[in-house]
Amino acid sequence: MLVAFKTDAYADIIMFGDVAQQLLKMTGHSGTVPSAIQADDVPAALERLKRSLEVGKISGAAQSGGDTAAQGRDNDNEVSLAYRALPLIELLTAAAKKHRDVMWDKL
Questions:
Q1: How far is it, in rounded angstroms, from Cα 43 to Cα 4?
Q2: Which one of 14, 76, 80, 100 has the fewest beta carbons within 10 angstroms of its own beta carbon?
Q3: Spatial distance between the Cα atoms of 26 and 67, rounded to a whole number of angstroms
Q4: Residues 13, 16, 19, 25, Cα dihedral to 10°
């Protein structure tokens, strides 16, 4: 499944469904597709997403014993969730600045 995110403040973005749902849950949303976040709730959702991603980085480093170089060698072909979240963070940031709703649906 693919998920398309839309807002009047930014270009549409498309993500794999499992990643999109995981990121949506990190915003405090249920992860339901299709759905939306109203403009008034976008800033809080963005902050929760950023905070969750930061906590994930810290706990990931703690689990690997803090050796990020060794962790990087083990996951050379793996794209981090924080990196995959960048387009959604940019979309939510733009929506928050222009006070716009964010919607998403299956493709």
A1: 20
A2: 76
A3: 25
A4: 70
Closest CA to 28 of 9, 6, 17, 43: 43
In the chain, the amino acid numbered 34 is P
pTM of the predicted model over 0.85: no
Tell me the pLDDT tens digit for each residue of 22-77: 999 999 999 999 999 999 999 999 999 999 999 877 766 655 555 555 454 555 67
Encoded amino acid at 91, one letter: L
Q: Strand 2-7: give its sheet, edge to edge.
A: 10-16, 2-7, 102-106, 35-37
Rounded-to-integer distance, Cα 103 and Cα 13, Å = 11
